[in-house]
Amino acid sequence: MHNTKKTVRILAGALVMLGASLPATAVDMSFFITSAGPGNGANLGGLEGADRHCETLAATAGAGKRTWRAYLSTQAAALNDTNVVHARDRIGTGPWFNAKGVLIARNVDELHSPHSNLTKATLLDEKGQMVNGRTEKPNRHDILTGSRPDGTAFPPSPPFHDMTCGNWTKGGDEGMAMTGHHDRAGPTGDAWATSWNSAHPTRGGCSQKALQSTGGDGLFYCFAEK
């Protein structure tokens, strides 16, 4: 009996040690911020290239058995453009959990509501690490979305003639893209300044340098559609 209890204690200790050594992404992750962009500013290779980047990072983190989609909208060509893509329509139905297993939203409506669990501490990268915010160096809190607060695309009217850096194909000195603040922090406490998906457009173009100049680094959100 004594030996049995001792064996159980040893096995329990071994399991604890094993659990402690497992990476955060061993949980059923279904959301993350990219730890790095493709490296060419907002030129992500279109939606397809952005999705591939999500899939590559997820696979490297051990979460590649899902269908991953970048949370990005395209730019509407007309008010009644039926081909426009809304970020909220790309990401499935939820629920979504970060690399630590923390729930960030149960469904699309909650994700775009005050009831979501979107904070700097929960919006982690695929490695389970926090992304630098507004008060840290380098600041990386500008997350590419091309979206309005409800996750829909912008209409093709000034000043919103293109909020997607040419549908995520521009990486030079021209163009702009809407970004959100993952740390929910901005120069004021207004809703626009603290929005996770629609805070302000980039400035000075779509290059990596331009994105960094406003506090970004070409990062974007990835959600498991399935």
Detailed description of the structure:
This protein is an alpha+beta fold. Helices cover 22% and strands 13% of the residues. It is built from 5 helices and 8 strands. The strands form 2 sheets. Strands 1, 2, 5, 6, 7 and 8 form a 6-stranded mixed sheet that branches. Strands 3-4 form a two-stranded antiparallel ribbon. A hairpin with a 5-residue loop joins strand 3 and strand 4. The radius of gyration is 19 Å and the shape is globular. The N and C termini lie far apart (48 Å).
Task: Characterize this entry briefly.
This protein is an alpha+beta fold and 226 residues long. Helices cover 22% and strands 13% of the residues.
How much helix, percentage-wise, in residues? 10-25%
**How many beta-strand runs?**
8
Quaternary state of this entry equals: single chain
Q: Unreliable runs, pLDDT <50, ≥5 residues?
A: 1-26
Net shape: globular
> Rg to the nearest angstrom?
19 Å
Mean of residue pLDDT values: 89
Number of helices: 5
What composes the largest sheet? 6 strands, mixed
Distance between the termini: 48 Å
Order of helices and strands: HEHEEEHEHEEHE
Derived from helix and strand composition plus strand pairing, the structural class reads: alpha+beta
Strand content is 5-15%
